[in-house]
Design goal:
Blueprint: E1 6-10, H1 17-24, E2 31-32, E3 36-37, E4 52-53, H2 56-64, E5 68-74, E6 77-82, H3 83-91, E7 96-99, H4 102-111, E8 116-121, H5 125-135, H6 140-156, E9 162-165, H7 169-185, H8 198-209
Parallel strand pairs: 1-7, 1-8, 2-7, 3-4, 8-9
Antiparallel strand pairs: 3-6, 5-6
Helix pairs in contact: 1-7, 5-6
């Protein structure tokens, strides 16, 4: 049996990573770690499915008890990955996917150097802003905070292992599956997405140039 693998997925808010992962999970059997957050639920979000929504004092208690694999602040709210479910699923031989922001991803890498870090790029920052306004779940001020932070997040993608773009959903799903299979099999079938490749570097540069 193949060894279980840990994959960390990051992308600016509004990039569609949830949609990509939702489609992928129909075809692969992995444990998707549900993060904790101190922000309130958005319409339609379910506690324990989309996030574990915690009071600030409960979140702080978990930090004090070393209950997170990683945790970080983002747009005035706290987010963290509870460690216990990740470790339990690893022990059971199951692959684990974390959907977290960049600072948290690098915390995971420090603790788990075997983790594969994957970044999803938007076609442009302008398109990211359009998607966030269309989503309509945040105030204009909150959206602009996310947009202003997007360039900083994208700049950190150079330090990830793999980068691909969500411009067309079907293509993005296919690209993610290619990367997942390469990570699982330990082969070079997804090398075109590696961040040391000139094509990948140019793609990141192009998105940042128009930020």
């Amino acid at each position: 049996m193949n060894e279980p693998r840990l994959l960390v997925i990051s992308a600016p808010s509004g990039c569609g990573k949830g949609t990509v992962l939702g489609a992928v999970f129909k075809d692969i059997d992995v444990f998707y770690s549900v993060s904790c957050t101190t922000r309130p639920p958005r319409p339609g979000e379910i506690n324990g499915t989309h996030y574990h929504f915690l009071a600030i004092e409960d979140f702080d208690r978990m930090v004090e008890e070393d209950g997170f694999l990683e945790h970080a602040g983002f747009v005035d709210k706290q987010y963290g990955t509870p460690a216990a479910p990740v470790l339990e699923n690893f022990a059971a031989g199951k692959d684990v996917i974390l959907e977290i922001e960049t600072n948290g991803a690098f915390q995971v890498r420090e603790k788990r150097p075997d983790a594969a870090l994957i970044f999803i790029l938007p076609p442009s920052v302008a398109e990211l802003r359009r998607r966030l306004y269309k989503r309509g779940t945040e105030t204009p001020e909150e959206i602009e905070k996310r947009v202003s932070r997007a360039a900083d997040e994208i700049a950190k993608s150079y330090d990830y292992d793999y980068v691909f773009m969500n411009d067309d959903l079907d293509d993005a799903i296919r690209d993610f599956k290619t990367i997942y299979n390469a990570v699982k099999n330990g082969d070079d079938s997804a090398d075109r997405f590696r961040t040391y490749k000139e094509e990948t570097i140019n793609m990141i540069n192009e998105v940042l140039k128009n930020a």
